[in-house]
Write a structure and sequence with these properties.
By secondary structure, the chain is mainly alpha-helical. The chain has a domain of about 450 residues: Haem peroxidase domain superfamily, animal type (Myeloperoxidase, subunit C), CATH 1.10.640. It is built from 23 helices and 14 strands. Bound molecules: protoporphyrin IX containing FE. GO terms for molecular function: heme binding; metal ion binding; peroxidase activity.
């Protein structure tokens, strides 16, 4: 009886709120412009003064080797097999943190390194895999050092699952404009830019804070990294099966690995490079890369099945996947999260196939190129296309074109113009406020039903997301690879709002059990684990008026939502960033309210101008020619899907946007393509026997 009453109450308020909320928009004038009129040093002077780690980075850990052993050759062998450093080398493992390794000095190489080091020549460790997140505001840990955030008065913050149930809804509201591939590209960008250290985000975590049947393990018996989410009594879902506890393992910090820690509050570590460099395709270290590279024709390793190329197999399928029958396919890629959901595995495959497609074309155009040159040139083009699609086609949907132009994240320019805006004063590290709060708001776009769609765009069937998490084999069944790809570019994503799909709110990673976890509750708990500054702090930081009492939040938040937060939080000062930012009315033309929009804009500005290898830079060593750049600017998500499906024949030209009269499905051949003949005989830097020994090993040869 109690269960149904609770559910009914929640549903009624959510329906009412959604109806009202959907129509409210905030004018963009409420948004504080960061980059236009004020130099970043001025507005973020605080950051400069409070960022001693950036100004003088810690000495790099001991280097194992500074030289490549042997030379690359076109033979399909792995030249790195003998190179076996003890850290920074293999794919991240749950519960284990490793030290970043950046060389003390850098050579000015033609290509990006695999681990992101030496992108910044004076500060080689910036943006490197296994380093700290950046932060806009000082952390608010419970003990000032590392324990999870508490209320102003030192009490426990309200239960994360309860907030997920009361403040956030689970209504199915299809987006009227954007397709599901829009959501899926977002997860690709996320996995490219950050991954909290010590976690798995897909496969079962080796650290257990709850028993397998959902009972809490006593704190004196549980590992110290445990911070489980307690399920409230009468929970509408979990009480049906007696689940009392959702597993949650704290992210590892610089305090957990002595090679990075100096003093002061803990900072979480991120296991992947922070650059938009397709590290999820190529790996985050030379060693990771060498495990998935073919070493022939510049190609990445693939498995051929039924006439198509798929990602290579995981070396430990029983750990990496929840494959039911043993022998079911499970993949290995540059990122360990690859198997987490079918759409993710498909885009991983598409980006991998794109690399090999480019390498094959380049090999025909330039028969004198060896494996290394083909690999690096194909990688460079693949990354450039990806950066172009991300910033000019995808990000404007989230941040708004006007906002992006105003803040210099994109430019209106002729097709050939270079944009040399690399700024060595900008730290490209991924901000904790971005990865742990703002960017996760787009979990709201996740759809729990994945449609299988034919070439004629009729729905053939659909999959339930939670049936196929961590079980990617489904994408290889029958025509599913193409049907799901068409499905993702045809069906709408979920509206970006306070609703989070039931499949991720009660059934996340359920591994054949009746219920799984709750991603919204996890996001809230993670906010506290990382000790993020409060919603009110970030509001103020972003130029929105600081609230002195609950009612002051009504400038951006619906009154009924404020009322609900009031019933949970002791003070308006306690509201978590993940919660407050997600219930703000959106800025016109964007998919986030002013506070999250400010954080996201700041992050993507840094990701662009802090990247020395950004594809639009006209650097004569690392960049493209004007003709090549104008070709890269023709890349689109539609063409990427067309070129790399099994047999996809048609697509709408703007695949992030729903099919309509102005965006009709058309033959793939009619969608503009990057002309790779502009790369004929463009001789990249080729090491001679003299220079080879001078090239540090980390250059990703
Ligand atoms: C089916 C789609 C998705 C699923 C199942 C999913 C699931 C997850 C899970 C399980 C985590 C780890 C949570 C934790 O332990 O703290 C996570 C982290 C995250 N997700 Fe998603 N996610 C999806 C899509 C997205 C999208 C579309 C975005 C943004 C556009 C996004 C942004 C993030 C971010 C920023 C993180 C933190 C990354 C880090 O470790 O630094 N996710 N997601």
């Amino acid at each position: 009886m109690m269960i149904s009453k609770t559910s009914i109450y929640i549903y009624i308020i959510l329906v009412t709120r959604c109806l009202i909320y959907g129509f409210i928009k905030v004018s963009s004038s409420a948004y504080h412009i960061i980059h236009n009129d004020h130099p970043i040093q001025e507005v973020f002077g605080f950051l400069r003064e409070n960022a001693p780690r950036y100004q003088s980075p810690p000495p790099p850990p001991i280097l194992l080797s500074n030289r490549i052993q042997g030379t690359t050759s076109s033979a399909p062998t792995n030249p790195f097999a003998q190179f076996n450093p003890s850290y920074g080398a293999h794919f991240p493992t749950g519960g284990v943190a490793i030290c970043a390794m950046a060389p003390p000095t850098c050579e000015n190489s033609v290509y990006r390194t695999m681990d992101g080091s030496c992108n910044h020549l004076d500060n080689p460790a910036l943006g490197v895999a296994n380093s700290r997140y950046g932060r806009l505001l000082a952390p608010k840990y419970g003990d000032g050092i590392s324990s999870p955030t508490r209320t102003l008065t030192g009490d426990d913050l309200p239960n994360a699952r309860l907030i997920s149930l009361v403040v956030f809804g689970e209504m199915d509201v299809p987006d009227p404009q954007f397709t599901l591939i829009n959501m899926q590209w977002g997860q690709i960008m996320t996995h490219d830019m950050s991954m909290q250290a010590g976690g798995t985000q897909a496969r079962k975590h080796p650290t257990r804070c709850c028993t397998d049947d959902g009972r809490l393990i006593a704190s004196n018996e549980a590992p110290t990294t445990c911070y489980p989410i307690i399920v409230p009594p009468n929970d509408p879902a979990y009480s049906q099966v007696g689940t009392e506890c959702l597993d949650f393992v704290r992210t590892l910090t610089d305090r957990d690995i002595k090679c990075l820690y100096e003093q002061g509050p803990a900072e979480q570590l991120t296991a992947v490079t922070s650059y938009a460099d397709l590290s999820l395709v190529y790996g985050n270290s030379i060693q990771q890369n060498s495990e998935i590279r073919a070493f022939q024709g510049g190609r990445m390793s693939v498995d051929q099945r039924n006439g198509a190329e798929y990602l290579p197999p995981s070396r430990n399928a029983s750990i990496d996947c929840d494959a039911a029958p043993p022998g079911e396919v499970c993949y290995q890629a540059g990122d360990i999260r690859v198997n987490q959901n079918p759409g993710l595995a498909i885009l991983h495959t598409i980006l991998l196939r794109e690399h090999n497609r480019i390498a094959d074309v380049l090999a025909k155009l330039n028969p004198h190129y060896n494996d290394r040159t083909l690999f690096q040139e194909a990688r460079k083009i693949n990354i450039a296309q990806y950066q172009h699609i991300s910033y000019y086609e995808w990000l404007p949907i989230f941040l708004g074109s006007e906002n992006m132009l105003k803040n210099k994240l994109i430019y209106k320019t002729s097709t050939k113009n270079f944009i040399n805006d690399f700024d060595s004063a900008i730290d490209p590290s991924v901000l904790n406020e971005h990865a742990t709060a703002a960017f996760r708001y787009f979990h709201s776009q996740i759809e729990g039903r994945l449609d299988l769609v034919s070439e004629l765009r009729s729905v053939l069937g659909s999959l339930r997301l939670s049936d196929w998490m961590n079980r990617p084999s489904i994408i290889e069944v029958g025509d599913n690879f193409d049907s799901l790809t068409r499905g993702h570019s045809t069906q709408p994503e979920e509206l970006t709002d306070i609703n989070f799909d039931r499949e991720i709110k009660h059934f996340l990673l359920r591994r054949n059990m009746p219920f799984g976890s709750d991603l919204r509750a996890i996001d809230i708990q993670r906010n506290r684990d990382h000790g993020l500054a409060s919603y009110n702090d970030l509001r103020e930081f972003c130029g929105v008026k600081r609230a002195n009492r609950w009612e002051d939040y009504s400038d951006l938040i619906e009154l009924d939502v404020i009322e609900k937060m009031k019933t949970l939080y002791a003070s308006h000062e306690d509201v978590d960033l993940t919660v407050g930012g997600a219930v703000e009315a959106h800025v016109a033309g964007a998919l986030a309210g002013p506070t999250f929009l400010c954080i996201l804009t700041e992050q993507f500005y840094r990701t662009r101008v802090g990247d020395r290898f950004w594809y639009e830079n006209g650097d004569s060593l690392t960049g493209f020619t004007e003709e090549q750049l104008s070709e890269i600017r023709k890349a689109s998500i539609a063409r990427l899907l067309c070129d790399n499906g099994n047999q996809i024949a048609s697509m709408q030209p703007q695949a992030f946007i729903l099919v309509s009269k102005s965006n009709p499905v058309m033959p793939c051949a009619d969608i503009p393509q990057v002309d790779l003949t502009k790369w004929i005989d463009q001789k990249p830097f080729e090491p001679t026997s003299d220079t080879l020994n001078a090239i540090p090993y980390h250059y990703g040869k």
